[in-house]
Amino acid sequence: MAGIEKEAKDFEIGMYRPPSEGGSSSLLLRVTRNCPWNRCEFCVMYKTEKFEVRSAEDVKKDIDAVDAICRGLITLSWKLGHQGDVNREVAIRFLERTPEFSDRHSFFMVLNWLSSGAKTAFLQDANSLILKTDHLVEILQYLRRKFPSLERVTSYARSRTLARKPPEDLKNIHEAGLDRLHVGLETGDDELLSLVRKGCTAEDHVRGGQKAVAAGFQLSEYWMPGLGGKEMWENHARNTARVLNEINPHYIRSRPFNLPPGTPMAERLQRGQLTLLSPREQLLELKLMMESLTFTSRVCFDHAGNYWRNKRGGLLFSQSYEGYRFPEQKPHVLDLIEEDISLAQVPPMGFVMR
Predict the structure, then answer these.
(1) Residues 33/55, Cβ–Cβ less than 8 Å
(2) How far is residue 258's CA from residue 312's CA, in Å, rounded to a whole number?
(3) What is the SS3 string spanning the chain?
(4) Alpha-carbon distance 306 to 287, whole Å?
(5) 218-223/180-186 β-pairing
(6) CA nearest 182: which of 22, 12, 13?
(7) Cα(345)–Cα(241) distance, rounded to whole angstroms?
(8) pLDDT tens, 149-165?
(9) What's the predicted TM-score (pTM) here?
(10) CATH architecture label of 178-354
(11) Rounded mean pLDDT of 80-89?
C-alpha cells in the first residue's frame, strides 16, 4: 500500500464542462488549456487566459496520476474488507495516509467518479479536436487502456474545426475512443453569427455537424434562445432550426442567452443597440423554433438557464439529459410552451406568428 500511496499525485483540471458531464458523472481530463478562438462577444470564459496545447506525455502523466489514486483506493478497500467497494471509510483512511490530498479537488473528483462506476470521461478545455489527429488518438488510446470501464468519452469541439478536419481523421479519432462531441452552435443565422463574432458560418455548422455524425460521433449541439434580442429573434429561430434540420444531430440543448457584465454585448445593450427578450418573449421565440424543427433527435433543456415555470411553480421543461424525443414528443413540448405563454399577457413584439 505504501508504494501505491507514493505514486498518488495531483493532476490538472479545467473549469468548464457540459451539464451532462457534471457532478460525479465524468472524469475531467485537460488536454488543452482555454479556447483557441476566444472572441465570442457573449462569452466571458477564458477571456484572460492564453490557449495552450498540452503534450501527449503531460496528459498521459495525468492519466497515470488518476490511475494511481484509483489503485490506492481500491487496494485499501480490499485491505479493509470492503471487496473493492470505495466508500466513506476507504476515503477517510486514504486521506489519513495521504493528507496532502485533503483539500484537492482532483482527489474528490476521482473518488466520486470511481464510486459511480468510472464510466465516462470528458476531455477539456474548449476545443480538443484542434489537436493534431495522432496526438489526440495517442491520448485516447492510452486513456482507454488504463480505464477499460469507460463507456463514453466526450469533448467540446468547434464547428469550423470539424468542417476542416479530413473525414478519415475524424473517423480515426472516433475509433480511438472519442464517442460524443458537444458543439456550441448558438445560432444558425449568418448575420447573427457575424455580429457575435462566433468565427464560423451557418455552412460551417452544417458541414462540421454532418461530418461529425458521418464519422460516428454522437453529436450535441447547443443553441441560445434570446441571443438575437428583439431585433433579430425571428431569423435566429428560423435559421437555427434550418441548420439543425440539415445536421440532424443526436441532441440539441437549450442554453438561454444571458448577458455577463463586461462583454461587448453588454456594452451594445448600454448603447441601445440590443433589446433583450423577456422570459415570455423567449418562449414565443422558442415556439417558432420548435415548430420549425423537422429532425429525428432529442431536444434537451438540461441547462440551469432554462428557468421557465409552469402554473404549479415547477420547471416548465424536464431537465433530463436525454430530453424529449422528436418528432414523437414535439406536440407535448409545444403544448407546454403554449400553456406557459397563456399564463400572462405577452408584450407585443411587432410580429405575427405563422
Answers:
(1) no
(2) 25
(3) CHHHHHHCCCCCCCCCCCHHHCCCCEEEEECEECCCCCCCCCCCCCCCCCCEECCHHHHHHHHHHHHHHHHHHHHHHHHCCCCCCCCHHHHHHHHHHCHHHCCCHHHHHHHHHHHCCCCEEEEECCCHHHCCHHHHHHHHHHHHHHCCCCCEEEEEECHHHHHHCCHHHHHHHHHHCCCEEEEEEECCCHHHHHHCCCCCCHHHHHHHHHHHHHCCCEEEEEECCCCCHHHHHHHHHHHHHHHHHHHCCCEEEECCCCCCCCCHHHHHHHCCCCCCCCHHHHHHHHHHHHHHCCCCCEEECCCCCCCCECCCCCECCCCCCCCEECCCCHHHHHHHHHHHHCCCCCCCCCCCCC
(4) 14
(5) parallel
(6) 22
(7) 26
(8) 999 999 999 999 999 99
(9) 0.91
(10) 2-Layer Sandwich (3.30)
(11) 92
Whole-number Cα distances in Å, 114 to 29, 44, 259: 14, 32, 37
Q: Where are the domains of the chain?
A: 178-354
C-alpha cell at 169: 481523421
